[in-house]
Design brief:
Blueprint lengths: L1 E6 L2 E5 L4 E8 L5 E7 L4 E5 L5 H13 L3 E4 L3
Parallel strand pairs: 3-6
Antiparallel strand pairs: 1-2, 3-4, 4-5
Length: 75
């Protein structure tokens, strides 16, 4: 499971089997964004500008270990 917590009162959990792909991207001059694309092609975007590049790359390795395709378009 992949758990996303933006605010402590709001939590979104994705089953790994439901995730088609994760994309790291940047939109114009904004912060880095994590885009989650599910098997039924729904998308959610989570800005994460405070994460260091090292953290993004470590997260990419962990996701790939779980069989999730990760596309890195910004780091």
């Amino acid at each position: 499971m992949l758990k996303i917590i933006i605010f402590f009162w709001k939590k979104k959990i994705y089953r790994i089997s439901d995730i088609e792909e994760i994309v790291y991207e940047t939109q114009h001059k904004q912060a880095n964004i994590l885009r989650i694309i599910t098997k039924n092609f729904k998308q959610d975007i989570y800005p994460a500008g405070t994460l260091k590049d090292r953290t993004w790359l470590e997260m990419k390795k962990e996701l790939e270990k779980n069989g999730i395709k990760v596309r890195n378009e910004c780091i």
